[in-house]
Design a protein that fits this description.
The chain is built from 5 helices and 5 strands; from the N terminus they run H-H-H-E-H-H-E-E-E-E. It is an alpha+beta fold. This is Helix-turn-helix domain-containing protein. It comes from Ruegeria marisflavi.
Amino acid sequence: MVRKPYKHHKKGVGRHVQLPEWLQATEAWATMPPGPRALYVELKRRYNGSNNGNIILSHRDAAKALSVHRNTVGPWFDVLQERGFIRMTQAPYLGPSGIGKASIWALEELPTTDGKPAGKAFVRWRENKTPAQKTGHPDTNIVTLRSKTGSGRA
């Protein structure tokens, strides 16, 4: 049996973003709106396998990549941080020449380059469920009162 010759210029699968099933099964991911999910995928796109904790993504770049206004992505970063999916390793600042430096992020599902283990805070995140409020028509809770002019009987 003759084997096929190996293709020297064979193209591989290329880059891709993995979202593990265990991450998607968490309550934090399941209850998250689509905007922050898209932002998380964009952050993960910038992860190359060895730069966790050094992922650079500004609000403007994120807005451009997701085709939304730059003021829209700010709350999405907040949602991802509060649910424990990402952590800011360096805040944005103005450089010495007055040129702004973007935020630097770490994905919490993976260990960082400085040796810190993965935090995985999103696994422990739970949605705050407020107790059910009494709703309904105000007339449903009417209590019969004695009439002032009546005989005093209810």
